[in-house]
Amino acid sequence: PLWIKAAAPSTNNNSSSTTPPDSDPNGRRRIHSMLKLYYGLNEEGKAADQAESLDPCDINGPHFDPEVYLNKLRKECSLGELMDHESCMVKQIRSLDSDMQTLVYENYNKFISATDTIRKMKNDFKKMEDEMDCLSANMASITEFSARISGTLQDQHAQITKLSGVHTLLRKLQFLFELPARLNKCLELQAYAQAVSAHRRARCVLQQYSHMPSFRGIQDDCHVIMEQLAQQLRQKFRDGGSSAKDLSECVELLLQLDEPAEELCDKFLSHAQSRLEADLQGLEAELKDSAITDTDILEFIDRGCNEFVSSLCLVIASYQELFINQMANGKLHVFVDTLAARYFSLVERRIQEEKGVSDNSLLVRALDRFHRRLQAISKLLPGSAVPSHGTEIVVQAARERIKQYLSALQTFYHDSLTDVRQALAAPRGASSKDATPSLPELLASLSNFILNQLKSVLASVHLFTAKDITFSNKPYFKGEFCSQGVREGLVVSFIKFICQSSRQYCESAGDRGGSTPPALLLLLSRLCLDYETSTISYILTLTDEQFLVQHHTPVTPVTALCAEAREAAQKLLNHYVKVQGLIISQMLRKSVETRDWVNTIEPRNVRAVMKRVVEDTTSIDVQVGLLYEEGVRKAHSSDSSKRTFSVYSSSRQQIRYAPSYTPSAPMDTNLLSNIHKLFSERIDIFSPVEFNKVSVLTGIIKISLKTFLECVRLRTFGRYGLQQIQVDCHYLQMYLWRFVSDENLVHFLLDEIVCSAAHRCLDPSPMEQSVIEVICERG
Amino acid sequence: FVNKLQYLARIDRARALTAQTAETDAIRFLVGTQSLKFDNQIHIIDFDDENNVINKSVLLHDAGEIWHISGSPADKAVLTTCYSKTSESRVLTCAAVWRMPPEWESGNHESPDDSSNNPQTLELLCHLDNTAHGSVACVLWEPMGDGKRVISLAENHVLLWDLQESSTKATISSSATLEGKGQLKFTAGKWSPHHNNTQLATANDTAIRGWDLRSMSQIYCIENAHGQLVRDLDFNPNKQYYLASCGDDCKVKFWDVRHINEPVKCLEEHSHWVWSVRYNHSHDQLLLTGSSDSRVILSNMVSISSEPFGHLVDDDELSDNEESQQEDKGKEPLQDSIIATYEEHEDSVYAVEWSAADPWLFASLSYDGRLVINRVPRALKYRILL
């Protein structure tokens, strides 16, 4: 019958399928759906199918009417189309037939076995039905029996329950009666905890039934025993000595025995205090010994942490465990605060003893441990001021440390300067070249020393802010420590110190000029100038980068520091000029003051002192040239050394035409120099110099020549005295012009000198210019 | 109102300047010229305050070029000069007491065109004979004295002279000599107006020394008072222990001679040697300095003056009206400050001097012979007075 069923749609499909069934998955699906349709299996979109298939002309629809279809075709199509249609239909029918055949062949065997299986199942079900009936009958009889049994056992069950109740009551009673004995035994064995728990269990019952005499007796006995027990506990408690754990156990038991908590609490704390004080005394003793035994700070802090802080934590923990419900935390706070204060004072003393700046890591580690251990207290006792106080100590220590570093840097700077001084004082030229380093080398090494030292100090200080240090994330160490402490307190202060101490060289040495070697002044001035141009900003940038400084408070700006450094450099250079000028001035002054200018012989040579002046000026020029740039000078005439003094001629004129003095006639001797002055700028002798060689040399020469002038004006000259001055001035003119920025300045001052000498001359008859030149060129 | 007047002395060079100390009515300065070639003169500069005119007279000083000049405090016609004399190719600075001829004042004012008028000559009263002691640096009259005692500083000697027979005879009443290594030479000195005129201060090289004139012994010595040579000294007229000094280190220092280790104050305003320092005679906060940087500086040193809090106001005055109090509030206390820098000179200024008659007027003299008379700025004057 399956075969027939399967074949039936094929007849239906014979005329309907227009698509070749093979090779097209769509076509196959359609075949499947059609088969399903045939077997009445539901499919989605069935309604739509039905709606579609109402059309009788739909060859695939269920309402297909061949007649209508044929008529429609015949009406609409031409013969050719019909022929085509026909042949197409035939082709389709044929292919459908072959599909059908294939399907049938494929499924035949399955159909056969399915039929067999179904037949077999039919037989088996029949057998099972019988067995099921039997089972249900048995179950019914079991239910019946069970109901009957439970009915009979009901009474006995109630009795058993009652009996067991009595049993437990009896056991309780037995416990009660045995209680005094048991307590006694516990007391003997010192098993206090057991005794207390046993008594506690019995206590309310005894209380409840105390109106009955027997119970009352037991209660009284117990009372006596417990009193005894409490006494013993108190004794034990009072003795102290026992460990903290024992103590807290003791307290716990006493509390359970309704001891007054307040009193216990006080006692507990006093015991704890005595023990903690012993720890503190140990620490104090170590502190005293530390000078002798030479224990480092880390060991000290370790000991403090392990002994004092951990026992303190234990006390806090047990206190809170024991008393926290009964008591306010106030007492504990006071207790902890007083003890911690003592501990802190010890730690502070120890930290203060830490003076050496060699190894900062030890201190930082010690402080870290100190701080870390205090955090435990803050966890145990949230409101406590102790950890914050501890942080304050750390902060204070860090501050102190920065100060120490600053002073260490300052000492280092002084020492380096002393070294430089010694190097400068070492005889030059006597030893081989490499023995005495030159000024630029000294400057470079000094500046490197300082920078390296500063860097290493920064590295040491940086340990305070390392990530693995607990206190480094405190706001102080994130903000103020970096900006106010390190940047301002250390770096800026140090730079300021350099400037300040440099300035002091100008002041202290100012009076006699001798104490500081001029080369040192020059070197320091260059150092300060270098600081101004680059080093300061480098150092500050380095600091800011290393410490990630966020400036909440205003800090010294780089420009202010630079200005200060520049000021110091300027002051030093001015002072250098002053000192060097003074040295040359003194030579000139001595040479003018000690000579008898009236009775001198006719000049044959340039005086030795002038040669010395030129030599010294040349060596100063070399010295300054080592550290400072050349600088600009005003354009000068092609051959300045050969310049003849205009004033020589003019002074000669003055003298030649020296009019007999008449009060009414204005003196023309003054006129020329006055006119000259009118058009030249005022010369400031001790004026600030610029940072270059020419300006420095100009300053020195100005000072020297002005001294020369003033000294000349205080003397009286004979004829040859004047001539000697002429020769000397010409010689100076020949050699000094090349050092100065504006040679007119030298001309002017030398003119003034010769002029003044001429005025101070008793017999003013000047030397011929040519003779002067000959003398000067000769040497 | 003219604040300053200049007088270009028609002279070659000049270093010596003094106010006529005994003259309290007319504002008068004396200038001594310095010339080796021509006759030297004393120029008497009269300043007519009302008309703002300078009148000048000339007296001949034929003894030699004048290095120092000083007027008697008792007789306005008497003065001393230190002058250099060349004899046998040796230059020696001598000192003498002179009297101005009585006629100079009587209409002898020199006018520019009046060249024919021959100047009159000073009348020599006596020499302060110093041949035994060497060149004289300066001669000092006893301050506010009767014009009978002078001190001369010659090389390393302090000589106290008694002038007798109306100053025509001078005898050394006592003397002291500074002993020490090297050639010691006094450069400047000042007779203290305090302590009954028994004290003197001198300068040699970098040291300042105090002398007691009764015993002629040294009472204090400020070694290294200045980094270089000390050029001038002056006593505070109102504070007996206070003393100002100046020198080649361009500084002006103020000393309390009871504490000589450190100066009380130090000014460093000049850019070259400071040659002269003068306290105002009445208002000792006003200080005048002259320097070879061609500048004259007037400073107001309130903090170390005898009136550090300004003019003291009487209690009655205060209670009179509240307005004055309000005024006081508006006034800030004066600070130590530079009041003015005068740059009229074109050569080194070797001498500055306050007028003896008008405390608000001063003169300065530069080497080129220019004398400049200036007034204290009026605003400051009123601040000090009111």
UniProtKB/TrEMBL annotation, chain A:
Keywords: Coiled coil, Endosome, Golgi apparatus, Lipid transport, Protein transport, Transport. Coiled coil: none annotated. Component of the Golgi-associated retrograde protein (GARP) complex. Component of the endosome-associated retrograde protein (EARP) complex. It comes from Cyprinus carpio. One of its GO terms (biological process) is Golgi vesicle transport. It is found in: Golgi apparatus, trans-Golgi network; Recycling endosome. Involved in retrograde transport from early and late endosomes to the late Golgi. The GARP complex is required for the maintenance of protein retrieval from endosomes to the TGN, acid hydrolase sorting, lysosome function, endosomal cholesterol traffic and autophagy. Acts as component of the EARP complex that is involved in endocytic recycling. Belongs to the VPS51 family. SUPFAM superfamilies: Cullin repeat-like. One of its GO terms (cellular component) is membrane. Pfam families: VPS51_Exo84_N (PF08700). It comes from the Eukaryota. This is Vacuolar protein sorting-associated protein 51 homolog. Residues 9-21 have a biased composition (Low complexity). Residues 1-29 are annotated as: Disordered.
Automatic annotation (TrEMBL), chain B:
Pfam families: Beta-prop_EIPR1 (PF23609), WD40 (PF00400). GO terms for biological process: protein ubiquitination; regulation of cellular localization; regulation of transport. Residues 14-298 form the EIPR1-like beta-propeller domain. The keyword Thylakoid does not apply. Gene3D superfamilies: YVTN repeat-like/Quinoprotein amine dehydrogenase. Belongs to the WD repeat EIPR1 family. This is EARP complex and GARP complex interacting protein 1.
